[in-house]
Design goal:
The protein is α/β, with parallel strands linked by helices. The protein contains six helices and nine strands; from the N terminus they run ααββαβαβαββαβββ. The strands form two sheets. The chain has a seven-stranded mixed beta sheet with strand order 5-4-3-6-7-8-9. A two-stranded antiparallel ribbon has the order 1-2. A hairpin with a 2-residue loop joins strand 8 and strand 9. The longest helix has 16 residues. Bound molecules: S-adenosyl-L-homocysteine. S-adenosyl-L-homocysteine (SAH) binds next to strand 2, helix 4 and strand 4.
């Protein structure tokens, strides 16, 4: 078991060697990741690997994304601090906690109850009072709270779920991995004056987005 200060040193090294060196430059994103204790989002036996350059299992066949991918997706959201952000796929809760430091409010949806309960305990422990969470099929979005300035989907589907596009504010920005079950393209969809603009960021591999507007379970 590493001491607390070793986790801090590993986190600093993660920022330098995985994020800065690969071109992540949004100071607010780097600062949020510097202040988020990633090791508490994984089980005890994996804590020493929590700042490594890879995704890690979080149970129920799901994973916490590689730090670089979290940084890349967060940076692509271009958050200034006033936004309402919808996240689909709460998982460990790590991405939601990073987002909560960069926007006004995070709405996060998870379909697996065990993961949702665990993430909620962490949100309480870290006193992230601007995170609202919901156990549901996130491909349906969160209609009662729409529109959202930003939407981030952290599981991969065959296409952008229609309800999410309908719940995006104008101007607004959505990021999602889209493709087949083995490889996907991380895409940014921008809504500007009623027009949708799509651009590709990088090939990625995410776990399945399962639901009405995703893959069948
Ligand atoms: N953002 C997470 C990574 C999550 S992995 C983190 O920081 O740890 C993807 C998550 O999406 C899994 O927990 C999976 O259960 C969830 N998921 C898949 N399909 C979903 C859906 N339709 N609605 C909500 N969550 C979904």
């Amino acid at each position: 078991m590493l001491s607390l200060s070793s986790f801090t040193i590993n986190r600093e090294r993660m920022i330098q060697e995985q994020l800065l060196s690969r071109g992540i430059e949004d100071a607010r994103v780097l600062d949020a990741m510097q202040h988020t204790p990633r090791h508490i989002f994984v089980e005890d036996a994996l804590q020493e690997q929590a700042y490594g350059d890879f995704p890690l299992p979080i149970g129920c066949g799901q994973t916490i994304s590689q730090p670089y991918i979290v940084a890349l997706m967060t940076e692509a959201l271009a958050l200034e601090g006033h936004e309402k952000v919808l996240e689909i796929g709460t998982g460990s809760g790590y991405q939601a906690v990073v987002l909560s430091q960069l926007c006004a409010r995070v709405y996060t949806v998870e379909r697996v109850e065990l993961l949702m309960n665990r993430a909620r305990r962490i949100f309480d422990r870290l006193r992230c009072h601007n995170i609202c969470s919901r156990l549901d099929d996130g491909t349906m979005g969160w209609p009662a709270e729409a529109p959202f300035d930003r939407i981030i989907v952290t599981a991969a589907g065959p296409r952008v779920p229609e309800p999410l596009l309908a719940q995006l504010a104008d101007p607004g920005r959505l990021i999602i991995p889209v493709g087949d079950r083995y490889e996907q393209m991380l895409q940014v969809v921008e809504l500007i004056e009623g027009e949708l603009l799509v651009h590709d960021i990088t090939p990625v591999r995410f776990v399945d987005l399962i639901g009405e507007h995703g893959w069948a379970g």
